[in-house]
Amino acid sequence: MAIATIIVIAIPVLIVLWVIMAYNGLVGWRNQVKNAWSQIDVQLKRRYDLIPNLVETVKGYAKHEQGTLEKVIQARNMAMNAHTPQEVGQAENVLQGTLKSLFALSENYPDLKANQNFLGLQEELTSTENKISFARQFYNDTVNRFNTMIQTFPKNMLAGMFGFQAAQLFEVDSPEERKAVKVQF
Amino acid sequence: MEPPVHLYDQIARNKRNSVLLMTSAVLLLAVLGFVFGAYYEAPISGMLVASGAATIYLLISWYAGSSLVMLSMGAREIEKREYPQLFNIVEEMAIASGLPMPKIYVIQSNASNAFATGMRPDKAAISVTTGIMETLNREELQAVVAHEMGHIKNFDSRFSVLMAVLVGVVALMCDAFWRMARGSRKSSSSSKGGGQAQLIIFIAAIVLAILAPLAAKLIQFSMSRRRELLADNTSAELTRNPGALANALEKIVKDPDPLDIANRGTQHLFIANPLKTLKDVKALQEKNEKSGWFDTHPPMALRVRLLREMSHQDGTDPSASRA
Q: Chain B residues with CB-CB distance to A under 8 A?
């Protein structure tokens, strides 16, 4: 009798405890997904901040490349003002292209290539490109784990009950984009 | 960008093996305490003494360990403006792993090596020599830093401290047993003649006292090798560029400059064993994948081959690297 009573009481208690823990876990993971997404934004913003410095430095050495420099600034402003993920993706692609041509033209200016300031900015931009793509990679890994969690038994029941929705992967559509730009020459 | 499943498989298998090894080390300690205790007709107190000694030892190395290591290596903490590229690379790997930014230390040495310390990811540090920054290109240095980030992610410092404590306590107990056995030889003959059971315990205690320190050491070395392979895997997982780590390891092994500050006590920390490079170069050239029982690191040939296989299997284009 006593054992039966204990079991009857213990099972619901254990289930409630599990629900509480699993729910908290899911909330934690959802926040981690959000945080991983904001890391991407941090790095994108850092790149927008670096570009004017770079343009200023290049200007002093390569006065005849006004067109390329303007294109870079234009692409940066476009990317900054993009809103939908699709717009952002496109603008980022254009920006990466213009940056590539900017670093390519630096090849023609030995003085520029020897400039410490320019070299420093080049390293910063290379690293920021890397950080953007590593932040995306981490975001996608986090999303994958979160989605698997809320789509597999038994947590899928909980996810359905409390309205946890699968997070969107950061898709890269063009194979060119997959290779994070190499601003290394 | 999806990593191949086999990579995660390898990591999972490595973790399982480490847990297994750890358990056997703890068991060894318990058996040792039990048998030595039984020799003095107090098996339970023997076990208690063993676990008590292990706990005290553990607490000391837990709180003082990594700062002592840094001090003994002559590593100096750096700021971003001193080594911007190194700083950036570490930041990249912190982002890729989702871990807090570790502290960065630099060792003035022509030798090419690196190591990670810290009991917790938020108190971790990565140290590299000035030599490794000159020997490797950006991509390879990134892979090495990712390997160290792997040690942090997998709590390897904690693991190796635990192992060192176990080995130390086992040695301590065997030592104590020998001393006490010598001192009490006379009195044991006068005690009640227990017959066969006592003889068995006597023999078991003697055999254990000889073999246990050796066994503990072997477990420690085997564990150290496993954790290195695991960190190689994590590096590949973070950079998605296992080929770069393979290149880096080859360059590190072939670099002739010795690392003076390394010794037997710290050799297991480094990405490549700093003590035996000549032999390692030969083993790599002969593609010798056999590991010695007392090696702290897996054979380079094995590490390089596993990494190269990964880079072929996952189909990542080498030009897609981010470095």
A: 1-2, 84-85, 88-89, 91-93, 95-98, 138, 142, 238, 240, 317, 319-320, 322-323
Strand partners, B270: B115
The answer to whether A118 contacts chain B (CB < 8 Å) is no
Interface touch A123/B93, C-beta < 8 Å = no
Report the distance separating Cα B217 and Cα B163, nearest Å: 9
Give pLDDT < 50 ranges for chain B. 1-5, 186-191, 315-321
State the count of interchain CB pairs (< 8 A) between A and B.
Answer: 54
Among the listed residues B92, B140, B148, B237, the single catalytic one is B148
Any idea which of A137-146, A173-182, B67-76, B270-279 has the lowest mean pLDDT?
A173-182
Partners of B319 on chain A (C-beta within 8 Å) are 179
Chain B touched by A87 (CB under 8 Å): no
- A172 in contact with B at a CB cutoff of 8 Å? yes
| CA gap B186, A142 in Å, rounded | 67
The helix/strand/coil state of A168 is coil
**B80: helix, strand or coil:** coil
Contacts of B142 in chain A (CB under 8 A): 130
Nearest-CA distance from B6 to chain A in Å? 16
Active site residue B148: yes
Residue percentage of chain B with pLDDT more than 90: 21
- Name the burial class of residue B81, with classes exposed (0-12), middle (13-18) and buried (19+) by CB atoms within 10 angstroms of its CB: exposed
Chain B CB within 8 Å of residue A109 CB: no
ipTM score for this prediction: 0.78
Range of weakest confidence among A115-119, A155-159, B174-178: B174-178
Query: B145-203 pLDDT, tens per residue?
Result: 999 999 998 888 877 877 777 788 888 878 878 887 776 654 444 445 567 777 888 88
- DSSP class of residue A174 equals S
Alpha carbon B320 to chain centroid, angstroms: 32
Name the pLDDT band for A160 (thresholds 50, 70, 90). confident
Helix pair B277-285, B300-313: axis angle to 10 deg: 50
The tokens describing B64, both together, are: 């003082």
Q: What's residue B137's pLDDT?
A: 94
The token pair that represents A59 in the structure block: 């200007």
3-state secondary structure of B138: helix
